[in-house]
Amino acid sequence: MHRYRSHTCGALRDSHIDQTVRLSGWCHRIRDHGGVLFIDLRDHYGLTQCVADPDSPAFKVAETLRSEWVVKIDGKVRRRPGGTENAELPTGDVEIYIDAIEVLGPAAELPLPVFGDQDYPEDIRLKYRFLDLRREKLHQNIMTRGAIVDSMRKRMKEQGFFEFQTPILTASSPEGARDFLVPSRIHPGKFYALPQAPQQYKQLLMMSGFDRYFQIAPCFRDEDPRADRLPGEFYQLDLEMSFVEQEDVFAAVQPVITGVFEEFAKGKPVNKDWPKIPYAESLRKYGTDKPDLRNPIEMQNTAEHFRGSGFKVFARMLEDDKNQVWAIPGPGGGSRAFCDRMNSWAQGEGQPGLGYIMWREGGEGAGPLANNIGPERTEAIRQQLGLKAGDAAFFVAGDPEKFYKFAGLARTKVGEELNLIDKERFALAWIVDFPMYEYNEDDKKVDFSHNPFSMPQGGMDALTGQDPLTIKAFQYDITCNGYEIASGGIRNHKPEAMVKAFEIAGYGEETVVERFGGMYRAFQYGAPPHGGMAAGVDRIVMLLCGTNNLREISLFPMNQRAEDLLMGAPSEASPKQLREAHIRLNLQDK
Question: How far apart are alpha carbons 269 and 261 in whole angstroms?
Answer without folding.
Answer: 9
